[in-house]
Specification:
- The structure is a homodimer.
- The longest helix of chain A has 21 residues.
- With about 290 residues, the first copy, chain A, is an alpha/beta fold.
- Chain A has two domains: about 90 residues, Leucine Dehydrogenase, chain A, domain 1 (Rossmann fold, 3-Layer(aba) Sandwich), CATH 3.40.50.10860; about 130 residues, Rossmann fold (3-Layer(aba) Sandwich), CATH 3.40.50.720.
- Helices cover about 40% and strands about 15% of the residues of chain A.
- In chain A, the strands form three sheets. In chain A, strands 1-11-8-7-5-6 form a six-stranded parallel sheet. Chain A has a three-stranded parallel sheet with strand order 3-2-4, sandwiched between helices.
- Chains A and B meet through helix 5, helix 7 and strand 6 of A and helix 5, helix 7 and strand 6 of B.
């Protein structure tokens, strides 16, 4: 059994990005610039955005944080997005979700210029991903594909089960792994809340991507010997012994499942760090205008 | 075993559309208008476009056929699309594929205003379908969903296998049936050319959508008792006894498989007529500005 060390891979990718930024600077090129919009003071959102700003600094990106109070109007928020769209120094734009209920999340997402949509949430990027055209892929699936690539996990022809059909993880993940690509070319099944017997699918799977958000859901009895397990779950569970008072728990019962696997991602330290670094990769791609002029 | 009579359902839908167009006329509204661009003189393409024009006439739509010779330049074709985009009388635009090799199919597709993209091929419509937003769904998957709905085929929680991952059939079909919707909420597996043992998946499936383009591929031994079979295949095979010299053959070995099924679509007369009528439905939706202003 081999633990897929997402933290280590993410660190390695950050070094690679930092090196590229250094060369861009030396060549007198503009350095990549990520702009983040944060509405309100939700603890989780504050943390995520702080991480993103910190990650940018670490690799030499410029970042801008635009903050609004909870009572910002949709019109004001759309105007802020528009301003960043028009700012030629800004390469990538993200709006930290969720936004307050009086604002249409979808409207905000679609207001972002798809060429700067480094979260990969805009319908154009989603559609281009499906069609197999170059596009920004949302951070978690992007990170998982990168892990499979760097650990040389064989995917072609494999039976892959994705648990969860969310727009930002399960769905794009299932599409990417099902496409004619490497990693890819899996026979993918998407299980979800309406699947009567998920174990009947997972027990035959060579690769399982657990992204349903139920801590400890995947048990050893549901997994076949030698499977590859990717755990996307990051539920906060109370942990009085820790400083923060909580710890992250994955969708996989790690202690039970790990001994049966060929590869497994731990939580924390598996998919999470890759999700963070994927945003940097997308921002670098945007700065280099890799997909769109 | 019940035969799903796509021809009959398509006729019924055409009557419904014709009735709606009649009412639109009575209310003094503009009647729906489909514009088709055809390049060259490929026999198949000529037939398809002729059908589309005829279908429009039958339900009372206006249609415009714009023809070019094989040597049309990409610039000329893009200009023609642009002209139709700007024509406020035109509700829906299709470019009959394939186009000659010196023209980028993808560029032409993306040049069509997504609000008039009644083929549902534009990345924005593909992306919106994936996200679950209102969108033009390409004609074959749209037609299949309609058949399942009208025949009241139970889909929720069912094991569904889609054979084929094309951008216009297999992929959108798998996404639609996997979404939280009715019809939908299936556990969908996508099989394709890199799947080692397709029978191991189909033999457990409650619903099989065969869209791989291999005549007679699906045999009785690959199907479980009581399955629902949707045959998307329409390969032309030589048939000297017919007037045209060929006949259409599906991906399913119908004679073998039909006795085991609960429902099955024949070829011809199953999915084909529904594909044709779906284009009319999308054009009507466009004329009514159901999704986009």
């Amino acid at each position: 059994m081999q633990i897929i060390d997402g933290k280590k891979v993410a660190e390695q990718i950050k070094l690679e990005i930092a090196e590229e930024v250094k060369q861009m600077k030396e060549q007198g090129l503009k350095i990549p610039h990520l702009a983040a919009i944060l509405v309100g003071h939700d603890g989780g959102s504050e943390t995520y955005v702080a991480h993103k700003v910190k990650d940018c600094a670490e690799v030499g990106f410029k970042s801008t944080l635009v903050r609004f109070e909870d009572d910002v109007t949709e019109t004001e928020l759309l105007a802020a997005v528009q301003k960043l769209n028009n700012d030629s120094d800004v390469d990538g734009i993200i709006v930290q979700l969720p936004v307050p209920k009086h604002i249409s999340e979808q409207k905000i997402i679609e207001a972002i210029d798809y060429r700067k949509d480094v979260d990969g949430f805009h319908p154009i990027n989603v559609g281009r991903t499906v069609i197999g055209l170059p596009s920004y892929v949302s951070a978690t699936p992007f990170g998982i594909v990168e892990l499979l690539r760097r650990y040389k996990v064989e995917t072609k022809g494999k039976n892959c089960v994705v648990i969860g059909r969310s727009n930002i993880v399960g769905r794009p993940m299932s599409i990417l792994l099902s496409q004619k690509a490497q990693p890819g070319d899996c026979t993918v099944t998407v299980c979800h809340s309406a699947t009567p017997d998920i174990a009947s699918y997972t027990s035959k799977a060579d690769i399982i991507i657990a992204a349903l958000g139920k801590p400890g859901f995947l048990k050893a009895s549901m997994v076949k010997e030698g499977a590859v397990i990717i755990d996307v779950g990051t539920t906060r569970v109370p942990a009085p012994e820790t400083k923060s008072g909580f710890r992250l728990k994955g969708d996989v019962d790690y202690d039970e499942v790990a001994p049966k696997c060929s590869f497994i991602t731990p939580v924390p330290g598996g998919v999470g760090p890759m999700t963070r670094v994927s945003l940097l990769q997308n921002t670098l791609l945007a700065a280099k205008k890799s997909f769109f002029k």
